[in-house]
Amino acid sequence: KMTQQMRDLQLAQARKPPGPSSPNAAKRLYRNLSGKFRVNYTSFDEGSLVGRGEKEKLRKSYLFQSNAALFEAVELQDLDRVQEMLKHYSPEELDLNTPNSEGLLPLDIAIMTNNAPIARALLQAGAKESPHFVSLESRSLHLSTLVREAEQRVNELMAQVVNEAPNADCSEKEKQLKAWEWRFRLYKRMKAGFEHARVPDAPSSVHLSVASSSSLQVTFWEPLSVNSAVVTKYKVEWSCSPTFSPLLGEAVIDKMKDLHFTIQGLVSGTAYHIRVSAYNMKGWGPPQASMPSFAIPSNWREYDGRAPRRRGQAEALDHLLGQVKTVHQHCICHEPCKNQSQSRKHSVSKSLKHLFHPGSKFLKTLKRGLYLTAIFYKDDNILVTHEDQIPVVEIDDTYSCLLMQDFLWLTKVSCMWDEILWLRQCVTVSQSSCSCILQTRFKMLLAILQMQGLLGIQDLGQVFFEPIKDKQGNILIVTLKEVKTNQTFESVRWVPICKLQSSRKSVSSPEEPTALDSLLISIQDKLAYHQRSSHALSAGLYLGYLKLCSAVDQIRVLVPEQLPNILCHVKIRSNPNISREEWEWLQKMASVEEPVPTEPEADRSQNPLFQELQVAIKELMTLVNIPLQEAKDFRLYSQEVLDFGDQVSFLLLLPPSDDVCTAPGQNNPYTPRSGFLTLPLQIFELGEKR
């Protein structure tokens, strides 16, 4: 008889129909799964179902079939089918951690048959071991009971088949006999797997790093031994003593996707020792000490007590803007503000229907001047007017040469699209000086207001980093904005980009395309730039390369095309924190005559940051096409670590002082390979802040 614990478990599972118990039954389930059951149950025509009760019944049937099919796939050691089911179904849909009528989970069967690939796939999906195996004795007793009862059932069926005359019932008994013989062999294999297993070896490696001034990050790897059972969880322990007495804390990690753990709430400046041990169905194995053997929570700012550079800056700017608004609030020019605001609300309420109104003030052709165009796109479609034209408004018809400072000023304005009306009123106050610059900027604000009013949208997006010019004297400033799929607009006309490009007929010769022609020809590149400029780096410490080049009216910075909002870079490691000890070492290296850090051969293995920097510098030099021997003249910027939030930080690699910024006409002997571009420094700063 089974133990009382297993009897209780069977009673709890009594209402759950037993799963198929033979290879043939498994194959039938697979065929069902490939057709009827390989869809989400909500995809059935709910209109044909009568009432909620029938829907729930169908749902339970679907879940049972998926769960039974998973058990059969694991029992038959069908790795491909297990992976396919885990890919298409959630753990809840598969009922992944609910025991079957024998008190087993899919993971129990996989580890006791020593099928490591299936066990790892299940662990990655969040599978657990049965909670009913509270000890080695209980597991051994349960397996012995399953083997004994299966053997008893085989003997009973064998006797019935031998003694009964051939008939339909006898044929059915023979099928049951084959099924139970197969299950008997399975249980014997599981029992043998459990008896021959041993506790796991220690993790093959445990790496310890400083995550912050109050936390440490532990990364570990599986044991190297292949003879023990599959590891199903790990335990991380920490103490201030190398003997781990007393033990300050421990954590059990049973999520096997990422073998790392961050210990929080530690005391800055205190040394902590770490060790990790592995667990399988036979128990906990020996611990593995970390490398290095201890670490001290710290941050590079503790070296000189430096506060974060941007602390309070956003609040200070908001306060300053509020003060400026207060000063201008009672100006004469702001008296009609309320009426203008009401008029603007009426304009915005018309939304994008203005695009299709015959009286809209969008331009179809350019006539030597300065213009603003707004590109709204969704997937491969672009927003156009009722005449299938990209929205364009005029800024100034007498402006034949756009000054870079005016353009850069407009890019800053793009950070506050909702304040354009107020900005226009402020410029009006100052216009008595008759400054040409103020007049131009005033006209830019008027054009923005016109575009916002005609579109019914305030946010025009991001300004492309350079205007488009043609030989006819036209200058086109482009803004780009992606429309998310969950946004809805009334009476919008979307046109495929390829259709718009093919239907555009230039009024100029092919040798002299207009600015609008140039925009359509290069629009895919501009949309790609816009999408890439919003990408973020994954968490980690990076080595960036700062290279500038100057022109008459601007300074430009070298960036990669794939991430134009970030300097050229390579990843040093996944941990973004620089500890106080590492920063002290960097300061020491900065004080010696050799710019690139070097150390005696004996000390290199003791300094992980040195090794990481060596690899990163080589990779970065290759990336920007600079001979490695030139790296000896480069320097690490040692004034600060550039922190971008809590998850991304940068160390900067600088060329020799004379080569940081290439002057006009100066020859640059090392030209980067394709895949790079230079942005105006102000544009790059705005992109980084976005």
Automatic annotation (TrEMBL):
Gene3D superfamilies named among the record's database cross-references: Ankyrin repeat-containing domain (1.25.40.20), Immunoglobulins (2.60.40.10)
GO biological process, alphabetically ordered: establishment of mitotic spindle orientation; regulation of establishment of bipolar cell polarity
Protein name: ANKF1 protein
Region (Disordered): 1-25
Organism field: Alaudala cheleensis
GO cellular component, one term: spindle
Residue stretches making up the Fibronectin type-III domain: 202-299
